[in-house]
Amino acid sequence: MSRAPTPKKKLFEHLARVAKALAHPGRLELLEALAQGERSVEALAASVGNSVANTSHHLQVLREGGLVRSRKEGLQVFYSLSDSQTPVALLTALRRVGELYLAEIDRIVREQLADGEGLTPVRREELLRLVRTKRAIVIDVRPPAEYRAGHIRGAINVPLEAFPRKLRQFSRDREIVAYCRGPYCMLAVDAVKKLRRRGFHARRLEDGYPEWKARRLPVDAGE
Questions:
Q1: What digits encode the pLDDT tens for the residues 7-44?
Q2: Cβ neighbours of residue 203 under 8 Å, at least 6 residues apart?
Q3: What are the structural domains, with CATH classification, of the chain?
Q4: Strand pairing partners for 69?
Q5: Strands 156-157, 219-220: pairing kind
Q6: Measured between alpha carbons, how far is 188 from 203 in angstroms, rounded to an integer?
Q7: Residue 223 near residue 148, CB atoms below 8 Å
Q8: How far apart are CA 180 and CA 157, in angstroms?
Q9: How far apart are CA 50 and CA 174, in angstroms?
Q10: For the chain, what is the HEC assignment?
Q11: pLDDT band at residue 108, thresholds of 50, 70 and 90?
Q12: How many Å from the N-terminal Cα to the C-terminal Cα in the chain?
């Protein structure tokens, strides 16, 4: 006769649902996309380069794990994070474990994200000081829709394709700090390279808008 599962085993079974929700690269990418703001299934599919059917399946797994929620508007289904802090904290913890113990992640970070000139990314506390003393300009290099959904207070939206037009308004006397979707987002890395080639002193933020918001630091929405 088999024993009934103990309360602890039942709890671990439910926690395993959360772990299952995280156990796919496509779902991690969807969480990063949703950390920028609410999106329709179709918009998410386009953002991550996947089919609508596949994206919908992954979103359902994330919802079963308690990480996202959905609402219906007409024929469209919209998804958002269950809250602005917990899923982001999970992604951050997962990233830290991976960087500490998986050599492959450390190699990719060093090869693709490391600063060729040896400049350390700007920490959140440092950015607050730089902005407060008007020594830095903060630029958000995400697409305009993501910027409107939420951005660091005072940041200017400068998508990469707008660089030739918008950079004329910036002074080379102030540092430029670029940020995008998160610590592994290449948009900010590319932005810093472009800025330096044009003679600006530029660095990227250590992570992105979701981590900034999760720390309850100043944010705004809209244009």
A1: 999 999 999 999 999 999 999 999 999 999 999 999 99
A2: 115, 119, 120, 121, 122, 175, 176, 177, 178, 192
A3: 7-86 (1.10.10.10), 115-220 (3.40.250.10)
A4: 80
A5: unpaired
A6: 9
A7: yes
A8: 10
A9: 40
A10: CCCCCCHHHHHHHHHHHHHHHHCCHHHHHHHHHHCCCCEEHHHHHHHHCCCHHHHHHHHHHHHHCCCEEEEEECCEEEEEECCCCHHHHHHHHHHHHHHHHCHHHHHHHHHHHCCCCCCCCECHHHHHHHHHCCCEEEEECCCHHHHHHCEECCCEECCHHHHHHHHHHCCCCCEEEEEECCCCCHHHHHHHHHHHHCCCCEEEEEEEHHHHHHCCCCEECCC
A11: confident
A12: 65
Query: Which of 164, 221, 160 has the alpha carbon at shortest distance from 188?
Result: 160
Of the chain, the percentage scoring pLDDT greater than 70 comes to 96
């919209």: which residue's tokens? 78
Closest Cα partner for 196 from 144, 123, 118?
Answer: 118
Query: In this structure, which amino acid lies at residue 86?
Result: T
Q: Report the catalytic residues.
A: 180
**Residue 48 near residue 29, CB atoms below 8 Å:** yes
Rounded distance between C-alpha atoms, residue 204 and residue 215, angstroms: 18
**Per-residue confidence band for 101, with pLDDT thresholds at 50, 70 and 90:** very high
Q: What are phi and psi of 178, to 5 degrees?
A: -105, 145
Tokens 């037009």, located at residue: 165
